[in-house]
Specification:
The chain is an all-alpha fold. The protein contains seven helices and no strands. The chain is 79% helix and 0% strand. The mean pLDDT is 80.
Length: 107
């Protein structure tokens, strides 16, 4: 059982019992692993389980807003040379529009 299979249950409308079984299977697989990074992932998944369970229940996440925030921070770092705050705001707005993001993906 891998993490992708566990998270894919959000699309299937699995009940809590199925999700609990998949979680147990994933954590058991990680615990049996001899790879320290896999155990670290298991610890992180276990610690963040309330958020993951909410995603599995609703199928919604904050990935879009987190992605936009990441772009805004990147643009802010790259535009440090602007002395005019309005120009920096305009640049941030232009980069985070849908058309700009689609263009960036195809480039």
């Amino acid at each position: 059982m891998d993490l992708r299979t566990l998270l894919a249950l959000a699309r299937t409308g699995a009940d809590r019992e199925q999700v609990g079984h998949a979680r147990w299977k994933f954590l058991t697989w990680c615990a049996d692993s001899d790879i320290p990074e896999v155990r670290t992932v298991a610890t992180t998944v276990d610690r963040c389980w309330p958020e993951i369970a909410a995603f599995l229940d609703t199928g919604h996440s904050n990935a879009k807003s987190e992605g936009i925030n990441r772009v805004i921070k990147l643009v802010a770092r790259n535009t440090f040379r602007f002395r005019n705050a309005d120009n920096q705001r305009l640049r941030t707005r232009c980069v985070t529009t849908r058309r700009a993001r689609v263009h960036l993906r195809t480039a």
